[in-house]
Amino acid sequence: MRTNFSKKVPDGDTRLRDICNRCGHIDYQNPRVVVGSLPVDAHGHILLEQQGCEWGLPYDFMRVGETSKEGAARILGNTVAADVGPLLAFGELLQSGIVTMTFRTLAQPTATMQPFALNDARLALAGNPVALQALDVHEAAQGQSRVAPGFLSHSFNAAAKGAEQILRLAPETSCNPAKACGDCSFDKGPKVKIVPGVVAAFGDKILMAQRAIPPRVGFWAVPAGFMELGETLREGAAREALEETGADVDVGALLGLYEIPELGQVMPVFRGEMRTPDLDAGTESLDARLCTWTEIEAMVQNRQMAFMIVKDTLDRYKQSKNAAEIQPCHMRLPLCLPGKPEGPGIDL
């Protein structure tokens, strides 16, 4: 067992981390991302996959370089008869350190996937809370091309099956695995990470943070950062807002889901309301402000926004401000290279 690491709180952080004493690599613990499908045939039947003596839905770890929809299609292989449809549900499996994304997909029955009526499928999936959550959202949103996804926060009973067993997951492998150094056991191979963010308001003003860390130091953004083990997506967005700006934010509905597959990043951005106007910029921010829409427009005109996603989420927040229900977007963002202009996003 290699022991050349220490538990320390890195500068600008608030938690103990495992840090290699030789190379200084910090082992930030992030949930693993799993994608899956709820296959539906042309007659509206649910297609379940035979898994030994049980029935279930196909799930696998998402890979760097693919979008979540591409991952769902990869798992189904040649059974897909149409494009993967909308995201039905997030599963936040806290003790297992897994976030699941389940999509509705049009498919055809195969030798290992058989059609079930809705109620029969529910009985067959008993004991799989992730699949049942996706089934419930599918039933409530049949015929809709855009769905407000559900959220399931679940802690598995340690004495029962774990998430990996219930979802029938093979061990995760990383692309191009590499060690940080010869004396520590940190795997620095690329893994998909969740980056939750929030567009938070206090009255008619919007919370903005001026970045103090690369990339785009000095430019403005909404609070966002890497999700950590043991928290839900909304809790991650609220924590980032607190760490970057000192704001106490109540995180609400999902505004949009953005992906940069080349970086292995999935970014859910939520609406939020600040409980108080108090701000205190953290070490990752040069400044934190409550901005009017006029000030935000001036930032856009002066090209002071850090990323395209910032303007898009702000626009969607403004457009949906008085909406009773938000239909979130799902977009693939282009990889922005240094010195190159950002291209347009692509709807998924």
Description:
The chain is of the alpha+beta class and 348 residues long. It folds into 2 domains: 32-166, Alpha-Beta Complex (Nucleoside Triphosphate Pyrophosphohydrolase); 193-336, Nucleoside Triphosphate Pyrophosphohydrolase, CATH 3.90.79.10. The protein is built from 7 helices and 20 strands. It has helices spanning 68-76, 118-124, 129-140, 163-166, 233-245, 293-301, 308-319; strands at 5-8, 17-20, 26-27, 32-40, 46-51, 54-56, 59-61, 80-93, 98-107, 113-116, 150-154, 193-194, 197-202, 205-211, 220-221, 249-260, 265-274, 285-291, 329-332, 346-347. The strands form 4 sheets. Strands 12, 13, 14, 15, 16, 17, 18, 19 and 20 form a 9-stranded mixed β-sheet that branches. Strands 7-4-9-8-11 form a 5-stranded mixed β-sheet, sandwiched between helices. Strand 2 (17-20) and strand 3 form a beta hairpin. The N and C termini lie far apart (44 Å). The model has no long low-confidence stretch (mean pLDDT 88).
